[in-house]
């Protein structure tokens, strides 16, 4: 597991890091998306990096979702992180502080290594992952202290609850509430998509 993650992190080192807390670029608030903006069905997946079921969906179900519905242009997936505890919040801050060109890859690393950092010493574990990705101690501390990122993540969580009554992760909101799935159930999600007209790719 760590060998695979190390290779991903090594790739991140080839990209320049924003200098947060040192007059650098603002942290990214872009969502992770898969598929065409013109797709007739949009699925918003609310996730938390500290959620084991979200990690399971990312590695086990997402590839099938892409192959059956996304790659054919029928479905677009928008991933929105809404941390539900302190470890998830700090992990999301670290990912967001990496910039658009890195935070997608770091999400995969954080999901894959949950067992290594999701514990009482989560800050130490996240600092280790950050260091492997080229984030030095000063940059890591600046990222963790970045109120702009922290406030954005907390506000997004509140908005998800108020707009769509999202109470846990993962939750899938389809076509702005036309349908919803409140668990990482491949069968229920695919059934909801097909009820709205999506057809599995041959």
TrEMBL record:
Record bears the keyword Phosphoprotein: no
Any GO molecular function: oxidoreductase activity
Superkingdom as given in the UniProt entry: Bacteria
Keywords (A to Z) from UniProt: Disulfide bond, Oxidoreductase, Redox-active center, Signal
UniProt function note: May be required for disulfide bond formation in some proteins.
Family: Belongs to the thioredoxin family. DsbA subfamily.
Protein name per the record: Disulfide bond formation protein DsbA
